[in-house]
Design a protein that fits this description.
cysteine desulfurase, Aspartate Aminotransferase, domain 2, 17% strand, four-stranded antiparallel β-sheet, Aspartate Aminotransferase, domain 1, PyrdxlP-dep_Trfase, 418 residues, globular
Length: 418
Amino acid sequence: MSSDFDVETVRRDFPILSRQINGHPLVYLDSSNTSQKPRTVIDTVAEHYAKHNANVARAMHTLGAEATAAFEGARARIADFIAAAEPEEVVFTKNASESLNLAANTLGSRLGPGDEVVISVLEHHSNLVPWQMVCERTGATLRWFDVTEEGRLDLDKAEREHLINEHTKVVSIAWVSNVLGTINPVARIAEMAHAVDAVMVIDGSQGVPHLPTDVTALGGDLLAFTGHKMLGPTGIGVLWGRRELLDELPPFLGGGEMIGVVTMEKSTWAEVPHKFEAGTPPIAQAVGLGAAVDYLDTLGMDAIAAHDHEITSYALGLLGDLDFVRILGPKQAVDRGSAISFTVDGVHPHDLMQLLDSRGVAVRGGHHCAAPLHQRFCVQSSTRASSYLYTTREEIDALRDGLVWAHDFFTGKVKARQ
């Protein structure tokens, strides 16, 4: 880890981390759900509304020019952050779900009976349901990678079954699982997809916030991610695409600003990215995401990834020593992200979530928008603890102590107490 990365200094940038919950210091371990925001992002959004608020592109007055410059400046910053070839390859959406729906619906115009779309059983519903819908509408067939018992994509099985073949038109895979933490070999899968002239879509929602991102190295044709998981505001997402592919795809939504010429008989479309950005976009949210990217760059994504790895290794070790805890997915921090999902013997995840919250520990309980993956591991739901750049070892200790306390309570070893 970079010697410049000081987690205690980082934490002072996040006002919410000084809160107490039920008399306990807040231990926020739900960053895979949404991340907390540094003061610079909060202040940037507030300043935009206070001093520069106007619509973009439409207004020629000073405020309109300022808002447009800030909005397009954020696009350029984000393009640079992911090593895109040009800012025009960055399309703003309201979240990663909309980005993936945009991908599914526009690529769906190319699909028909006999065509196949390949995903995996570990996908978030946002990278499953849109493809189900487009396959049902077009007559294409949906197929998927299975996972091994360790929680990694079963590439050997996929090769034996010729999962990606001459009928495959689209492959859409998460870079990092939001449940298992598995880092998938998307570059290798992209090579397999491109070998049969299929389009490769990557759900980067759990990858871009945590790992250095170079869209060329990832190998995909489209990459979706969201701002609120990477220190930015809610209501802002990104779909990056190769310029030549974006030029070919039809619009997703119709309305103002995505048009070239409109008559009563027909319309023509604006150039990318505006072709995909109908109506008033999430202006302040994009500006806030630009500030979040600046903050991440200041810390350094390599240093953030190293910190994530250290905390994840520590957490896997502590939880792995508890004989009543079953970790889903890889047990070692190798090709693994920071989301750790697990079950606790005799305790329902919702009950566990509430008991931990009584001690100030925030985790998530449920199927984490990945119900088929839980079915694959024969569990109805799980508890997920997910760390980020502001997480400390002491917070992982608090999680471990809370799990022991909750398990003892539900097995009758202790009475409930604060």
